[in-house]
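Why does residue order matter? Because the sequence determines the fold. Keep that principle in mind as you read this record.
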Amino acid sequence: MKRPGPRSLGVVTGVAAFVATGVLALTHTGSTGSLKLPLAPPSEIGPLRAPETAGPLGPEGVPIPFAAALARAQPLENAQRIDGISCQAGESVLFHIHAHVTIFVHGGPRQVPAGIGIAPPLEVEQTPVGAFVARGSCFMWLHTHSADGIIHTESPVKRIYTLGNFFDVWGQPLNRRRVGPARGMVTAFFNGRVFTGNPREIPLLAHAQIQLDVGRPLSGPERITFPQGL
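Structure:
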């Protein structure tokens, strides 16, 4: 994959994302259309502290937290399947959308590392604004190129994938009391509202803004601006 510029992933990507978004009856404002989710207002969980100051913009034009990675990505192999998701030699743009996930552990940010869902050997480009994993021997349909929390859904089938699917590809546990190696009560946010169900069931919809807080204090939902074409 050719590395995108800081503010664009290209016209083809943008068109594919638009088509895929229409399939799910979503909008680029992150609405869920006819999909009913277990959501509640943030006021129901008490006071929230102001979100952490976003880090500098990375190679995808999205802030990268000033923090260590939550956990490494598990190594993958060509043709490996996880949750019905395959690792294929090329990336598919038939169904191509993006979501963003932010993670806090006891109030401190953690990075979602680059290279989740991409099998070695990795070709990593060191750009002036951060590392970008451009290529690997195969790509899972859910993967990350940068440590900015952007989850790329690039699938040959139109399907609603979940945060649980992504964590399975990452090789990390996710439930109501655990996010990867971090343990404690998990509070999940979806597009600024509290997701009251199992965090594994959070859908990776187009431009979904997802946040997981492990323990306390709780941070107010972080929101990013998706660059044009992402």
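DSSP finds two helices and 17 strands in the chain.
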